[in-house]
Specification:
Blueprint: E1 5-12, H1 30-38, E2 40-46, H2 52-61, H3 65-68, H4 84-90, E3 94-100, E4 114-119, H5 142-146, E5 148-150, H6 154-175, E6 182-191, E7 195-197, H7 199-202, H8 219-222, H9 225-233, H10 242-273, E8 279-285, H11 304-307, E9 308-314, E10 321-323, E11 327-328, H12 332-340, H13 355-360, E12 367-372, E13 381-386, E14 389-393, E15 400-403, H14 421-434, H15 437-454, H16 458-463
Parallel strand pairs: 1-6, 1-8, 2-10, 2-11, 3-4, 3-6, 5-7
Antiparallel strand pairs: 2-9, 8-9, 12-13, 13-14, 14-15
Helix pairs in contact: 6-10
Length: 475
């Protein structure tokens, strides 16, 4: 590959099926759609964890959550494990982050040459209340349904600032080329809630008949005890009406278009500066958004709406293609090294595979893993995707099994049908080839208990400031 520059554009909480290029007929995302048409669109990409901090640690390190052990939003990455940023910087590349990282602090060596307007976890600790996984009453969920509809919000302004800084940085790179090229990680907050959307974009959908949230056709089969507990822990849906749900959905769609507009500005700047001739662009999101499906909002479940992510790679050396082979965000690590032709002194992450290699030689039988070990999860959640099958394993509880080929909305849980016992056994054996869920679950709880004690115990945590999403300063 000839391109010497790499630009990763990372969004937050952008579900795959709310983009035009992934088949959504209602949303307006022309710039992302164009990027997908010109490059490789991965149709089966997954997050390593459907929550911010663990997912972003995996994006950096190329490791699954149980490998880097940044289990929750209160155990952030702190630069101690090798990342692609460290490796490219050591190889002589400029590595710059602009926007959200959600690591511990910019005082750590996170591997970047520079961090511009970084957003890290609050006070270097993050959401410590989430460590109390046995609780189901840690915050008032009513505010989620209030902050919807047209209006301005600090998250939106933060993204505008990050976009402006990115455009300035790209212009500077074109005027002062880096000898070995650069790798930029530009990361936005949107369409992450609060679901307050600038009027310009909300108006695109205000009177549209947008898809209603998915309701299980057979609720008695979908009321899994672990999910029932999670729903109780994060009962956002209880505060919505039919009308306000639609306002929230319209707001989310508007925020998707807001993000698309930002992508358009970045792509125009690459073209105007001539950088598009030497820059490979990777576009994705750290995880999806439930958007009311099955009574859930935000993420934290293993259904497609939260665990599946958009993933697109485009550039002067990339041939247009729709790739069906399963991939993971951990694959960004070897992809960055592949494009930059950089070598690492550390062992290559064993489960990660370059997206370039996948496009050249797809592995349709590859197994992909996702994990969740944060608030509301009374036990660990493990999702394994192999071919058309998805197994969701909960240590100590019955698993869930879905055939995505015939049931893409995951309505029919097949785990209770004895005729699928052999398939479940087969998929469980695939997980064990990667790691032991029971052991991982134990490690997660032990590490979180150690953090609880480090922070002064449960009473100290409960006395600490609480919040539902990371606050930002826009100035």
């Amino acid at each position: 590959m000839k391109a010497s520059n790499i630009l990763v554009i990372m969004t937050d909480e952008l579900r795959r099926d709310t983009l035009g290029c992934y088949g959504n007929k209602y949303v307006k995302t022309p710039h992302i759609d164009k990027l997908a048409k010109e490059g490789i669109r991965f149709d089966n990409a997954y997050t390593p964890s459907p929550i911010c901090v663990p997912a972003r640690a995996s994006i950096a390190t190329g490791k699954y959550v149980h490998e880097h052990r940044c289990w929750a939003n209160a155990i952030p990455y702190c630069g101690e494990i090798d990342s692609w940023h460290h490796t490219l910087r050591a190889s002589g590349h400029r590595t710059t982050s602009i926007g959200k990282l959600h690591f511990r602090s910019d005082k750590d060596d996170n591997g970047f040459t520079e961090e511009i307007k970084p957003l890290h976890v609050k006070d270097g600790k993050g959401w410590i209340h989430g460590l109390l996984r046995e609780r189901t009453d840690l915050f008032d969920a009513s505010g989620f349904a209030k902050h919807i509809g047209p209006g301005e919000d600090p998250y939106t302004q933060y993204d505008r600032n990050v976009c402006e800084l990115t455009l300035e940085w790209l212009k500077a790179r074109s005027e002062n080329p880096d000898p070995k090229g650069w790798a930029g990680f530009v990361s936005f907050l949107r369409p992450h809630y609060p679901l307050t959307c600038p009027s310009k974009f909300y108006d695109l959908y205000e009177n549209s008949e947008l898809p209603s949230p998915i309701s299980p056709l057979k609720p008695e089969k979908n009321d899994h005890p672990v999910l029932k507990n999670l729903r109780k822990s994060c009962d956002y849906d209880n505060f919505f009406t039919k009308e306000t749900r639609q306002i929230a959905v319209a707001s989310y769609y508007g925020l998707c278009s807001f993000v698309d507009d930002i992508v358009g500005q970045i792509m125009r700047t690459l073209q105007e500066t001539g950088l598009e001739k030497s820059t490979t662009v990777i576009f994705s999101s750290d995880h999806g958004e439930c958007l009311g499906d099955r009574g859930f909002w935000t993420k934290m479940v293993m259904y497609e709406e939260a665990s599946a992510v958009p993933l697109i790679i485009a550039g002067p050396d990339i041939k247009s293609k729709v790739e069906k082979a399963p991939v993971s965000l951990i694959d960004i690590y070897p992809t960055m090294l592949d494009i930059a032709k950089a070598k690492t002194k550390y062992p290559t992450p064993k489960h990660a595979k370059s997206l370039i290699s996948t496009a050249l030689k797809p592995d349709m039988k590859r197994v992909i893993l996702s994990e969740f070990h944060d608030y509301g999860a009374q036990t660990g959640m493990f999702m394994l995707r192999k071919e058309n099958w998805k197994l969701i394993l909960y240590p100590g509880f019955q698993s869930q099994l879905f055939n995505l080929a015939v049931d893409p909305n995951e309505i029919e849980d097949l785990a209770g049908d004895k005729s699928y016992a052999e398939k479940i056994s087969e998929l469980k054996s695939e997980i064990l080839k990667i790691a032991d869920p029971k052991k991982i679950n134990k490690n997660a709880f032990q590490d979180q208990e150690a953090m609880i004690q480090h922070l002064g115990g449960r009473k100290a945590i409960l006395a600490h400031e609480n919040f539902d999403y990371t606050p930002v300063e826009t100035s």
